[in-house]
Amino acid sequence: MTVLQLRLVVEAEDYEEAVAFYRDVLGLPEQAAFQGEGDARVAILEAGRATLEIANPAQKALIDEVEVGRQVSPRLRVAFEVTDAETTTAALTGAGARLVAPPTVTPWRSRNARLDAPAGLQITLFEELESLAERSARPGFGTGERA
């Protein structure tokens, strides 16, 4: 069995606001859009490479402490890798996102910002400051794969 795509489906009360925010401001290209009876609408936006990050409660608490300084994460949070966390944070807060925590350099060498965004999502913007190979060489980092 091979998984070909990870798709996160989010219900947005204000569909137009959410599409404008994620497509037009964050810059996620529209792959497809469909409309059905009863004003049913969906936009499928490309978000680059997808990963599924599974964290235990202690790691979730650590991430909140590093990025925000207190526990704020819901059970699910969406993270977007960007090339410039400072500029993207400014653009998204200018488009209506609420800043939870400004861009901060983390111990795992990324610059992360936390925002409350449209469609009820809490998002992290992260800018990698080192390559995966560089980070993997640090103590406490690795793939976690079992032989």
Trace the largest sheet across and list its strands.
3-6-5-4
- Would you identify the CATH H-level superfamily? 2,3-Dihydroxybiphenyl 1,2-Dioxygenase, domain 1
What is the CATH topology classification name?
Answer: 2,3-Dihydroxybiphenyl 1,2-Dioxygenase, domain 1
> Could you say how many structural domains there are in total?
1
The helix content is 25-40%
Alpha carbon gyration radius: 17 Å
Globally, the shape reads globular
Strand fraction: 25-35%
- The quaternary structure here is single chain
Number of helices: 4
CATH class bucket: Alpha Beta
For the biggest sheet, the summary is:
4 strands, mixed
Structure description:
The protein has a single domain, classed as 2,3-Dihydroxybiphenyl 1,2-Dioxygenase, domain 1 (Roll). Helices cover 25% and strands 28% of the residues. The chain is built from four helices and six strands, in the order αββαβαβββα. The strands form two sheets. A four-stranded mixed beta sheet has the order 3-6-5-4, with helices on one face. This is VOC family protein. Pfam families: Glyoxalase_6 (PF18029).
